[in-house]
Every structure is written in structure tokens, then in C-alpha cells.
UniProtKB/TrEMBL annotation:
It comes from Kalanchoe fedtschenkoi. Coiled coil: none annotated. The keyword Signal does not apply. This is Alliinase C-terminal domain-containing protein. Keywords: Aminotransferase, Pyridoxal phosphate, Transferase. GO terms for molecular function: carbon-sulfur lyase activity; transaminase activity. The keyword Cell membrane does not apply. Residues 78-436 form the Alliinase C-terminal domain.
Amino acid sequence: MGKDWNSAMYWRHLLVLSLAINIGMVAKVVLFHGDEKEVLLCPVEPGAEAAHLSRVVSEGSSLELEVASGVGDHGRVVDLDHGDPTMYEMFWKRMDEETTIVIPGWQSISYFSDPANPCWFLEPELAKQAVRIHQVVGNAVTENRYMVVGTGSTQLYQAALYALAPHGEPGPMDVVSVAPFYSSYPLMTDFLKSGLYKWAGDANLYDKDGPYIELVTSPNNPDGEPRTSAVNRSQGVLIHDFAYYWPQYAPITSAADHDLMLFTVSKSTGHAGSRIGWALVKDKEVAMKMTKFIELNTIGVSKDSQLRAAKILKATSDSCKHMSNPKVENFFKFSFNQMTERWAKLRAAVRKSGLFSLPDFTSDWCTYNQQVFQPQPAFAWLKCEGEIDDCQGFLKKHKILTRCGKHFGASLKYVRVNMLDRDPNFNLFVERLSTMSLIE
Ligand SMILES: Cc1ncc(COP(=O)(O)O)c(C=O)c1O
């Protein structure tokens, strides 16, 4: 009896194992085909920078994604889909000594940074350097504000939605932004299917009465336009995303002075990998609710990263005030010149090819640079003219990866192109773009 039972169990286990292997293989085939389809047909699902990063890794085997490096580049894929700010690497290499930090094993062990601060995990040195950089650049009012630190402004965005949406309402609060909007907003807003808030699309089409949250991104991602609130109704609350309100991208016309403003080192100094953002918040209750969200989400924000970000911000401010190594250029001058050069090259390539167009910007006086200039955004909002309806697909055939306009609530004729990649990739992109009419 015992032997029969053992034998029956053995065959049962074998059957279950075989079923599991088969299901696994079927799932793999189905998922693989799904990915392939997504790559070919202007993917609609991903939008967050990181989501795109993981997609690129999975595509890597078939497309051989390597960084273009000069020699024999013609077959290389130029990946300008996500907004990775690696352009700044060359500046920071020269600032080795000024930006290196060493954290001994005994330091920064506690969860707490500043227990008396409503944001108890905010490192005082980061708070000090963030205020200082705003004073140096003149892009935001910092007086009478609470600062909340986040794991990137991505986490702060979610904390802000949690803090601003009224709790205990019968339905979720609408969240809107003028199209084209940052492709991650709809995804981040609806990811957890919150009962507090939900994505409601293009702010220009929003005609409902009642409370709503409007996201104002200025300069805007993807098109680089300066933005102000569009809906303008009494029951609205605003989140101002100032990831790109820095003088290498746009004229600083005044110190921004709004209820809730988001900033990040990702695009200001290019340290996206440190994952540090900060919010300047007028209302203490809102700042405390945002802090609560982050407490429950990640129990604070990495101290190591905060200390590194503080050091980088200090080096940036010092470079502007000529307080560091005299051989080191002002960071914003360096990055401004890089952006001017890149936009000039891109516009020349677009003119030469005759297949594309770019937005025209209005010049403005910059209180930081003390000159008039046109926005030179971190992304190019490129339009395929004429017969080309699927701009992303068209560029992909030329081994240039971009993000389809559809993710931003716009048409397939548009793509967003990262302008902050390393020199070899950017140069190869403009070279290919300028000769495209010849290839076609
Ligand atoms: C408008 C905008 N806001 C926020 C973010 C996210 O920034 P972080 O890296 O600080 O999460 C980005 C990144 O591309 C962005 O473009």
C-alpha cells in the first residue's frame, strides 16, 4: 500500500512538473511575440524613463544596442528614446575632486536626518545646497517654504497626488495636463488604480466642474514650451513640475513662486542615477502628507544619495561663483553652450533633410545668463512632414530609436528625441537625419 502510494505520488509530481514547464514555454512564446509587436507598432504602454530602459535591454539581443562610437557606426542603433542625461558626464569628469564623497561605514546609519523638520528624513546639507542653487540661479522662491526630499521627483509627484487629492470623497479626483504632456504622468497616475485620483487627460479638453489637479510642466516635456496653468477654475490645485527650469534649457524669466514646485538633480546637473528630487511646498499640511506618503512608501530617502546630491549641488553653485578650481568652467555656461551647439546642429540637419520640422520658440530675457535667447530644450519634439505618418517607425528603420508622439497625447507624426545623450550618439543622430532624404 505504502509502495503504491509512493509510486502514485511520483507520477503525480512528474505530471505537475511537465505541465509547469509547458505552461512556462507557452507563456514565453506569447510574451516574446507581444514584445516584438510592441516594438514594431509605436508602443502605447510604456512611458516612464525606467520602463523604457528595461524595454531596451530586452530588445538588445535582436537590435544589438551599442553606444555609437565613431568608427563603423553606420549599422549602429542610436537610442534616443529615454531622457538619460549622459551628456554631462564630460563636465563632471573634470570635477573629480570637487564632487567625490567618502561615507565611512559608521556614518548615516539612522533612518532619521532631522527629527525636528516636518520632513524628518531630509538631510540638512541637501536642504542648504538646494536653497543655495535656487538663490544662485534665481529660478525659485525658497522663503517660507517646506522642503520635501524624494527618490527623484517621480516619487514626489506621487506623494503630491496623495497629499492634494481630498480623502473621503465618493470618487477619485481628476488629474489633467495640457497635451503634449510628459508620457509618464498618465502611467504614474493610474498605476495603482488609486481611489483618490485618476488620470483625466488633456487639460485643454477638460470641461468638468468640480475639483481637479492640473500638472504644469515648464519648460514642457516633450515640446520645450514655457507653460502656465490652462484650466484656471477655482476648484483646481496645481503641481508645477520644474525639472527643466534651469538656464541651460530656457531663459529664467523670474523666480517661480507657486504652492507646490518639483525640482530634480536628474536634469539640472544630470545626476539621474542619484534619484534625488525636492519639492518646495507652501502649505505645511501638504508637506506633512507628502512626507507621510514617502514614509510609508520607502521610509525616507537614501542618505547616501542625499549627501552626494548635496555635494554635486555645492560644486555646481561654486562653479557659478568661481569658487572652485579656477580651471573649471561655470556649469550652466558649459551646459548652455552645449545645448546651443546641439540645437544649431539639429536645426541644420532638419533643414538639409527636408523631411522634418521642429518647434519655433520665442526668445526671452534670462535673468541668470543676462542675455536674450530662445529655449533650447532637453528634448526635440520632431515632426515628420509630408507622407510619413508613423514618425517613430520611420526613424526606427534608420536605426534611430525615439519615443512616439502617442505617449504624450499627440499624433504619430511626432516623436520625442533625447538631446542629452553622449556626443558620439548625438552626432551620429544628426548626421543620419541630415542624409535621410538621400537614403529614402
Ligand atoms: C517633466 C519631468 N518630470 C519629472 C521627471 C522625473 O525626474 P526624476 O528623475 O527626478 O524622477 C522627468 C524625467 O524625465 C521629467 O521629464
